[in-house]
Write a structure and sequence with these properties.
Layout (H helix, E strand, L loop, with lengths): L3 H7 L6 E4 L3 E5 L7 E7 L14 H18 L6 E3 L15 E5 L9
This protein binds guanosine-5'-monophosphate and zinc ion.
Guanosine-5'-monophosphate binds next to β2.
Length: 112
């Protein structure tokens, strides 16, 4: 199985890690869209949000607990946005579940 994010998690592909625990890892996006653009990635390979199983429910919660810690570490006290692209229509390019954490700038109320 060829998965870029699994390779990053294993340390076989370099990345700038900003957070890691038993369940998730987080690193800077290669092509940042905002002053802060971190990808929060569960260590378990799950292809997309649509592939989250019952047994993964807690793991998804862990992503948001990690986000709180990353926000504190990176000084996102004014807030942040978390986005998940699921499937083709959403433009998901990497088939390993990940959450874009964006911040460092006021984004306004519109999402797209
Ligand atoms: P998606 O479109 O699947 O939601 O987002 C994939 C994201 O992964 C993109 O924002 C892209 O810039 C990022 N990305 C793709 N390959 C790599 C990589 O090798 N390293 C890092 N750090 N980010 C990557
Ligand atoms: Zn993977």
């Amino acid at each position: 199985m060829d998965c870029i994010f699994c390779e990053i998690i294993k340390g076989n592909i370099p990345s700038t890690k900003v957070y890691e625990d038993e369940f998730v890892t987080a690193f800077n996006d290669l092509n940042p869209q905002m002053p802060v653009h971190v990808l929060i990635v569960p260590k378990k390979h799950i292809a997309s949000a649509n592939d989250i199983a019952e047994e993964d429910a807690e793991l998804v919660g862990r992503v948001f607990l990690a986000a709180q810690k990353i926000a504190e570490k990176l000084g996102l006290e004014n807030g942040y946005r978390i986005i998940n692209n699921c499937g083709e229509d959403a433009g998901q390019t990497v088939k390993h579940l990940h959450f874009h954490m964006l911040g460092g700038k006021t984004m306004g109320e519109r999402i797209i």
